[in-house]
Amino acid sequence: MTDDHAPAGTRVGVDVGGTFTDLVTVRDGRIRVDKTPSTPDAPDEGVVTGLRELDAPLAEVDFLGHGTTVATNAVLEGEWADTALLTTAGFRDAVEIGRQTRPDIYDFDATKPDPVVPRDRRFEVPERVDERGAVLRDLDEAAVRDRARDLRESGVESVAVSLLFSFEHPAHERRVREILREEGVDASVSLSADVLPEIREYERTLTTAMNAALKPVMDAYLGSLAAAAGDLGVDAPLRVMGSNGGLMAADAARERPVNTLLSGPAAGVRGATHVAGRRGVDDLITMDMGGTSCDVSLVRDGDPLVTTDTEVGEYPVSVPTVDIHTVGAGGGSVGYVDTGGALRVGPRSAGAQPGPVCYNRGGTEPTVTDAHLVLGRIDPSGFLPDALGRDAAAVREAFAPLAETVVGDPEATEAAARGLLDVANANMRRALRVVSVERGYDPREFALVAFGGAGPLHATALADALDVPEVIVPRAAGVLSALGLLISDVVYDYSTSMVRRLDDVDPAAVRDAFADFEAEGRAELRDAGRADDAMAFERTLDLRYAGQSFDLSVPVEGDLDGDELDLVEERFHAAHERRYGHASPEEPVELVTVRLRTRGLVEPPELAVEERAGDPDDAIAETRQVGFGDGDAPTDGRDTPVYDRERLPTDAAFDGPAVVEGSESTVVVHPGQRARVDGDANLVVETGGDGE
Questions:
Q1: How far apart (Å, rounded) are the C-alpha atoms in residues 454 and 291?
Q2: φ, ψ dihedrals at 179, nearest 5°
Q3: Of 319, 376, 566, 658, which residue is least crowded by CB atoms under 10 Å?
Q4: In whole angstroms, what is the distance from residue 452 CA to residue 438 CA?
Q5: Domain named Hydantoinase A/oxoprolinase: which ranges (predicted)?
Q6: What are the residue ranges of helices labelled H in 602-642?
Q7: Where do runs of H (alpha helix) occur along 443-561?
Q8: DSSP H or E segment with residue 341
Q9: DSSP annotation of 319
Q10: What is the pTM of this model?
């Protein structure tokens, strides 16, 4: 099997978006970017089309990484397999009851999402174990066989099995699976002891049910894609980006599709981390802004923060996931006035069709992209095919109702556009504060990495407002998720809940759990072609104060003896202080969950940078009036140079105001800021913030 720890000759990353499928090929250190229209009804077709059109011998591809939205779209659209649930007697409706929280506390008509498994597909199994795994009632195998026969006759496609406290005693779940097979149930089976062996009955059952519902969908997709790639001559094994920010084997993704729900955004965070790390920046905030939304995340010490408290659509999913906060603010977000007379932006989007008004594809409502056009910041004809874009008259007409309502003058288009951008920026500024200030981190100590088609248009203003000292715009800003696939490690996460007072924890039992996880991780990494010297293992314990309903992950650094447990407890108090602003060292602490992350290390490919000499002024394509809103009136415009990013010399530096146009994104450099090109051809904008 290929060992892709070493730099590959030809590496291909494929990220499927809503509009385009991005392909990044690295060969002999040179990056090539290709885009092909996505095919939502058959997403593998867009990928195969892109592979077929690559300007590289497919037989020489020795790494193929893939970021997919198949699982995400299935959840958002409710298009999943016919699924049944087997659970402990008395807990049939736990997955529908959920938590006693309201989506909107003031909305008396608020409804919960439809359960993943409808009630007529949920079945009870007589059995019971206690919270320590002691069997209180043996599994009633005769009853399980009756249920199995019912399932066999129903033609169900997938089965989820979630029994009470199975993380302490998985034998009953495993026996249920054996009986289903013995009775001829031809369906995929997901056990909670495998999918999420952790406390919290609702989240564990829901996540297991969702995994079961997605398995046939992902199995068919990845199976078809792998076969098609093989038919094209690609011998490299398919790797899929997981929500935790690491790659996984395609077979693992087919077995645990719930771990791929944030595949694409996680790849973007990994790409941003790599770009910043090459500059020696290990603390950063990432900002991925596309057409419909903006995803922000925080990276500390070179590793993205990971959470097990994530929502996809309206469903909480408790698998390890890069901590990404999303707001409905993108280039296509529509501006409007609500019933209270306030200007709003998003979450409704004009999408790709018809898109913003300036795209000349039939859009009639003012969007964020249109506002940038009004203020002179973008020229859509420079990045849209078929000479579309820059229909200024149609844009001004679209802004007229907004300007009349907000400003009182239908001709005050610039003021309305500026107001629309201010509201959009306020939404994104709140998102950036959620992942930084509200997590106990000072944004002044971080860099902001902006990517996606629209991210660099807003990042410099947001960084200035939060006193972030520098903004990094990667040279591959528009396809950073695809590039991130090429530099990501293979990562598998293992966990099991062991709820005990820390004083009562047997260190040997925890050491045994870590050892079992490590053995399983080594086996999976070897199957993925990793040598033993390319493996790393990270141990953590989830802790909480006794009586709390939430916990924090704390690293385990030494041998797990009594002294190390004391140090772990001290780290927990410090983490609680940073996260919530207080700690209670005198309170008893509980162990909740034991976690191990196994990492198969990948050596990123060296990327060549074309050296260009010359004067930055030679890269000025034009000068135009650009509105920045920093003068006596919010519509003040300035004569502003517009630089062609592809023509900027290596190590170029220039002061704002400026606009830098690239093939994938546009960067706005505000007055008082300074931009320069670094050794990797990234554009770095120094905001003058308070960072040290």
A1: 7
A2: -65, -40
A3: 566
A4: 24
A5: 204-493
A6: none
A7: 455-466, 480-484, 507-527
A8: none
A9: S
A10: 0.86
